Amino acid sequence: MFRIILNSGYLFPLSLQQSSTVRRRLHHGDVGDRKNENYETSGLDGLDEPLLGNHDYDDKHSEGKMTEEIWDDEQKKEQLHWTLLFSNLIAQWAQWIANIVFGSGSFIAQFLPLHSNTQNGSNQKLIAPTLSPLQWEEVRNLVPSFMYPRGEARLRNLQQRLGVPFDGSRLDHQDALKQLWRLAYPNRELPSLKSELWKEMGWQGPDPSTDFRGGGFISLENLIFFAKKYPESFQRLLHKQDGNRADWEYPFAVAGINISFMLIQMLDLQSGKPSSMAGIRFLKLLGEDEMAFDDLYCVAFQMMDAQWLVKRASYMEFNDVLKSTRTQLERDLSLEDVFSVKDLPAYNLLRR
């Protein structure tokens, strides 16, 4: 009989904690597209070796340029790279800001008859500049805070929620656990806070308070939000009613804690300002909806279960499913037509 623990917020079967000299990378397509999956293996021992070895050449005529010329070329390439990068970035941001300031619905546009990018009288949605992963990495700390003022204020509130650990001795935390039980099993009697009945919900032991660890109190809030806003989806996932289920299923409640922790990491919420592409895009969503994180949690939970069914996974494969869920969610957040959580493709899987 295996027992699972939370290690940095993820489910790890104790029997699987072993070292390996091979790393496994999963590339996957959208949910249901199993034919795009492939695996790569590579030895870890060689990761520090350069891709091209160092060779000494005695023939000086084979060196095409002198050291000084090579150095000058490298400097020119670097200057050109940064010139093109910032020129492109400034142009895109300028156009974006101009669309906001001089858009048809702005105060200034009421007095200045400027041309707009609209057709047939319908306003197009504004899209933030699209940058490559390398460009995001280079300019992530240059994103001006005034671009998402409402998002940053809500981010601070969200980060305060993240800083609250679950405390089984606090009455409000105890009440939250009781509320979750009533939402999950409205027709059943409420058990004591330490009871074997809690295992039916997917807690690992009779005392749910021992399972939170890295998830914190917000992971319990996420479960309650899910149960209240999308009760049909919550109940179907809790009772594993969709698809052909495995003989050894993932524990519902503990999986929920893992999803909360995964989102916190993916969105880089514990840093002062999100630096990942997903985190920066999420900041925009948070500016539009104060409950964006909680809604995104529900989408992620539903997406994870869909991945679970497609992969025909079993308990021991939960970590792989969670990783592929994160990859899919990051890809969906990068879509240009996503302006709110409801625009995510997987949002349509949720049922109220």
UniProtKB/TrEMBL annotation:
Domain ELMO: start-end pairs: 172-333
Transmembrane segments: none
Any Pfam family matching the protein: ELMO_CED12
Protein name (record): ELMO/CED-12 family protein isoform 3
